[in-house]
Design brief:
By secondary structure, the protein is an alpha/beta fold. It has helices at residues 14-23, 49-64, 81-90, 102-115, 153-163, 184-196, 207-216, 232-240, 242-252, 254-272, and strands at residues 71-75, 94-99, 121-125, 138-144, 164-177, 220-226, 276-284. It contains ten helices and seven strands. The structure holds S-adenosylmethionine.
Length: 299
């Protein structure tokens, strides 16, 4: 299949459901919120959404350690704003980016054309669990607020490991369960957030279990940093601003706009109840495999 083309997801597949969820009304998104969908990293002194969203992307680029030699793959790239930002801020050699939602890919390509950087950042339609790239193609793999959706996150981890070159680095902005729900109300909140947000049940895991899954996929030096207090309340405040509500209602329509509000509220409540966390995850692929027949003394 030609890599620039649209893929058709099979009926009722997870990919089709996610594409419908994110694609709803998105043709009218334009440059609202700068094209970012992330929660923002609301550190001291940051008071507006665009600054918070770019702060998030800059932090991920720094976590990855991007530089002039980097070949980056961004999985779940949304409307491409983050890749154009990373290209300018870190000047990597190349960026390939992929998303399951076709209208997001169209927005991203338009953005790259308008920014005059289509030759250095390539956007593709595809799914995280079957990456259309040969093994060891990239020095870095990024995913911002998308791994929770992948069906499954573990399948994506295997794919990320495969496409990374030895010594490569991966960084994700993602969500974990802080503790299991204790009663019916808590179970309801977690289940509502999960199912409305199109998160497969198997992806609802604690930070410890996340770390284990990364290690099982082969990654080393896995670090998980909890940053919910810098992300979730700030995003909720932004989404409740009357101007934001008005714009989102125009873009997504009244029903989908309300659904978005219910999801944001469930996420905030799950966070405030100490059930859910927002995490930065960073890990490395080992630089060389131990040679066959190596003994303890060889090491
Ligand atoms: C919350 S948005 C984040 C987008 C972007 N990273 C940003 O922060 O602006 C989640 C993105 O993940 C994408 N996505 C979900 N499941 C996917 C999959 N299986 N493969 C690739 N992308 C996927 C969605 O289409 C959506 O663009």
């Amino acid at each position: 299949m030609e890599l620039g083309q649209r893929r058709l997801w099979s009926r009722r597949s997870h990919e089709q459901r996610v594409e419908k969820f994110y694609g709803w009304g998105v043709e009218g998104y334009g440059d609202f919120h700068g094209g970012y969908l992330n929660f923002g990293l609301w550190e001291e002194g940051i008071n507006d959404y665009l600054a918070a969203a770019e702060n998030m992307v800059r932090r991920m680029g720094t976590l990855l350690g991007l530089g002039g030699e980097s070949r980056l793959l961004d999985v779940g790239c949304g409307m491409g704003a983050q890749d154009i930002y990373l290209l300018r801020a870190f000047e990597p050699q190349s960026i390939d980016a992929l998303d399951v939602t076709w209208p997001h890919v169209e927005h991203a390509r338009r953005r790259a054309r308008e920014a005059g950087c289509e030759d250095r950042v390539h956007f593709r339609h595809g799914t995280a669990t079957s990456l259309p790239f040969p093994g060891e193609s990239f020095t870095h793999v990024l995913s911002i607020e998308a791994p929770e959706h992948f069906d499954t996150r573990e399948d994506f981890l295997r794919e990320a490991y495969r496409v990374l070159a030895p010594g490569g680095v991966t960084a994700f902005a993602d969500y974990t369960l802080k503790r299991p729900p204790r009663n019916a109300l808590e179970r309801f909140i977690v289940e509502a957030a999960r199912s409305l947000w199109k998160v497969p049940r198997v992806n609802v895991v604690t930070s410890d279990s996340y770390r284990e899954k990364m290690q099982r996929a082969g990654f080393v030096n896995v670090e998980v940093e909890e940053v919910g207090r810098l992300t979730i309340p700030g995003y909720y405040r932004e989404q409740r601003r009357p101007e934001t509500v008005r714009e989102l209602t125009k873009i997504r329509g009244r029903v989908a706009g309300r659904l978005g509000w219910v999801i944001d509220f469930a996420v905030l409540k799950a966070y405030e109840a100490g059930l859910m966390e927002y995490v930065f995850v960073r890990a490395e692929k080992p630089s060389a495999r131990p040679s066959v027949g190596a003994t303890a003394r060889d090491c």
